[in-house]
Design brief:
The chain has helices at 20-28, 37-43, 89-104, 120-124; strands at 2-4, 10-14, 49-55, 58-67, 72-80, 110-112. It has 144 residues and is an alpha+beta fold. Strands 1-2-3-4-5-6 form a 6-stranded mixed sheet. The protein starts with a strand and ends in a 20-residue tail after the last helix.
């Protein structure tokens, strides 16, 4: 699938996980810590759905969905190269992910994600709301 954005650039979507090099390159644009290749190698290819967006030969965005493929899903790693922010690339990625959910997810599937204060409004446009329950949302990040 192709899409034209500002200044005539043609973007292409591929339904596949990024390579380790593509993933690390996108992460490095935000000065995020580098993940060891042994872990990205173990993780990628096990997602239930993923897309990359290319401008020519260069991956400029990506999105992954992990989960059981039917009831529980988590949207992970929506990353867009900073040069393409505010150019509809995130919407393109989310549109592909939403289409995937329409075809595969059960009627009452739970779809989660972690938003930042900067991305909360974006995800609200797709029906995501802050979860307010009596339960405590908890998480842990290993810092070795």
């Amino acid at each position: 699938m192709e899409m034209t954005i500002e200044q005539g650039a043609k973007l292409r979507i591929e339904k596949r996980p990024p390579t380790q090099k593509e993933y690390q390159s996108l992460r490095s644009q935000y000065n995020w810590y580098t993940l060891e290749n042994q872990f990205t190698k173990a993780a990628f290819g096990k997602e239930v759905y993923s897309v990359v967006v290319l401008d020519g030969p260069n991956v400029i965005g990506m999105g992954r969905v992990v989960g059981d493929g039917a009831i529980y899903f988590t949207i992970q790693d929506i990353i867009v190269h900073p040069n393409y922010n505010n150019k509809s690339v995130s919407r393109l990625i989310m549109g592909q992910i939403e289409a995937y959910f329409e075809t595969i997810a059960s009627r009452h599937a739970y779809i989660g994600l972690v938003a930042t204060s900067e991305t909360r409004e974006f995800y609200e446009k797709y029906g995501f709301t802050e979860r307010k329950t009596k339960n405590y949302e908890m998480f842990k990040i290993l810092m070795r």
